[in-house]
DNA sequence: TCTGGGGTCCTAGGACCC
DNA sequence: TCTGGGGTCCTAGGACCC
């Protein structure tokens, strides 16, 4: 989906169309916008100018991107680049509603859909009637049109022989574009790209590649496989080689079970375990209650309880502990997470606290944990990335 | 410019078991 | 006397993604 959060907000506030708008932050000051309702005059919207706080941008409209602001940028910096931009708080419930909506439109047309978060999916066109016409372009157009007519939202589609290439192709023609990428176009359309464009090559891997003089996927493709194995490890090296050659055998996965659920929060200022004891204790309890509520609402229990801290210097530590039996009880989660907390250095101030429950098991009709589903022989599960090659 | 929240997967060492 | 070869589970950290 194109600038998903921002686009959903523009449906609600059409008077903002064409203006630089950023979504982010939360809480502080901007809540009044929502309370005021959709009739708000332009002057009444909060601006980025003078923003103080720790938020980041989650989404920026294309008009705002002209000013160099974009996802993950701190709001304080964004305020300097584009002070006149309108700042709206994140309304995740609303985005989830539209997410469910556009996904249901897709599965009505093409049932094999893999969920990749609120604003992204993979779709298997292979056996959809008409899925092969014009290399998939006709079906892509139908999906785009159906979503737009129902919701008013635009999306960009990449059509390719596999997920790796489709994801890259989807970036070629944004917003509201379609790109059909054929295998024989690898040299001309993929190899000139930066390695960073590959889903799975992040900042660290990119840095290391550049240090070896590898900038583009063409550079990467020319390195001998064995050289990559030697420098990047058996699994990752082999995967890098396959990626550079546009090869990816992962199927589109339509069903999956959650592995963990967590809640975390960044404080408005760094806190100290001793000096801010009361405040921290309250936040900690709330986090445990929220995770427990999430688990209960979705029908899961978990055995591994963990905490996460981010110190003032941004270092992250985690501690966890596995219980004999899975739980979704706030008090037990809080007690166990409390023990975990005792094992970390609490002399230093920290900015974030999180609580996580892993080792999830779904609750059955009887209210008892289901035995973990055995991989069925009829439909073998996808091989893990490192087992592919 | 001091950098959110919610996830997944991988690695690696140690405990423990047969 | 200086010592195996699996396997699984637990824990901590880190890369990466939306």
Low-confidence stretches: 375-389
Tally of alpha and pi helices: 14
> What are the secondary-structure elements, in order, as H or E?
HEHEHHEHEEHEHEHHHHHEHEEHE
Look up the CATH topology of the largest domain: Dna Ligase, domain 1
Q: How many domains make up the coordinates?
A: 4
The structure class reads alpha+beta
Beta-sheet strand percentage?
15-25%
- What is the H level of CATH, i.e. the homologous superfamily of the largest domain? DNA polymerase, Y-family, little finger domain
Cα distance, first to last residue?
A: 32 Å
Describe this structure in words.
With 389 residues, the protein is of the alpha+beta class. It folds into four domains: 4-90, MutS, DNA mismatch repair protein, domain I (3-Layer(aba) Sandwich); 94-181, Alpha-Beta Plaits; 193-244, 5' to 3' exonuclease, C-terminal subdomain (DNA polymerase, domain 1, Orthogonal Bundle), CATH 1.10.150; 260-362, 2-Layer Sandwich (Dna Ligase, domain 1), CATH 3.30.1490.100. The protein is 36% helix and 19% strand. It contains 14 helices and eleven strands. It has helices at 4-12, 31-36, 62-65, 75-81, 92-109, 137-151, 163-169, 186-190, 203-211, 217-222, 225-232, 234-244, 277-298, 330-341; strands spanning 21-24, 57-60, 86-88, 113-115, 121-123, 157-159, 178-180, 260-271, 300-311, 316-327, 350-362. The chain has a four-stranded antiparallel sheet, covered by helices on one side. Strands 2-1-3 form a three-stranded mixed sheet. The protein has a two-stranded antiparallel sheet with strand order 4-5. α7 (163-169) links the parallel β6 (157-159) and β7. The radius of gyration is 23 Å and the shape is globular. The two termini are 32 Å apart. The model is unreliable at 375-389 (pLDDT under 50). The protein binds a DNA duplex (18 and 18 nucleotides) through α4, α9, β8 and β10.
């Amino acid at each position: 989906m194109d600038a998903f959060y921002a686009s959903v907000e523009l449906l609600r506030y059409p008077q903002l169309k064409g203006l630089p708008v950023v979504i982010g932050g939360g809480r502080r000051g901007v809540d009044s916008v929502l309370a005021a309702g959709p009739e708000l005059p332009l002057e009444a919207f909060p601006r980025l100018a003078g923003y103080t706080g720790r938020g980041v941008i989650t989404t920026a409209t294309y008009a705002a991107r002209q000013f160099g602001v974009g996802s993950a940028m701190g709001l304080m910096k964004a305020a300097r680049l584009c002070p006149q931009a309108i700042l709206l708080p994140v309304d995740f419930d609303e985005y989830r509603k539209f997410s469910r909506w556009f996904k249901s439109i897709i599965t009505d047309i093409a049932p094999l859909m893999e969920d990749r978060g609120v604003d992204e999916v993979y779709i298997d066109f292979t056996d959809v009637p008409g899925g092969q016409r014009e290399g998939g372009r006709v079906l892509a157009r139908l999906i785009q049109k159906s979503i737009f007519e129902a919701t008013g939202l635009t999306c960009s589609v990449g059509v390719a022989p596999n997920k790796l290439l489709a994801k890259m192709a989807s970036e070629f023609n944004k917003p509201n574009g379609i790109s059909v990428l054929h295998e024989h176009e690898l040299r001309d359309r993929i190899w000139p790209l930066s390695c960073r464009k590959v889903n799975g090559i992040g900042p660290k891997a990119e840095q290391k590649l550049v240090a070896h003089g590898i900038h583009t996927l063409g550079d990467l493709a020319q390195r001998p496989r064995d050289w990559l194995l030697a420098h990047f490890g058996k699994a990752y090296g082999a995967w890098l080689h396959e990626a550079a050659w546009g090869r990816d055998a992962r199927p589109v996965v339509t069903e999956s079970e959650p592995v963990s659920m967590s809640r975390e929060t960044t404080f408005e200022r760094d806190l100290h375990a001793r000096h801010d004891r009361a405040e921290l204790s309250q936040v900690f309890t709330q986090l445990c209650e929220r995770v427990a509520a999430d688990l209960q609402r979705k029908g899961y229990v978990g055995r591994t309880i963990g905490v996460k801290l981010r110190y003032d210097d941004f270092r992250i530590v985690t501690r966890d502990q596995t219980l004999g039996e899975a739980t979704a009880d706030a008090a037990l989660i809080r007690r166990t997470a409390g023990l975990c907390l005792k094992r970390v250095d609490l002399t230093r101030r920290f900015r974030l606290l999180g609580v996580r429950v892993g080792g999830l098991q779904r609750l059955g009709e009887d209210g008892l944990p289901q035995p973990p589903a055995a991989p069925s022989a009829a439909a073998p599960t996808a091989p893990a990335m490192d087992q592919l090659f």
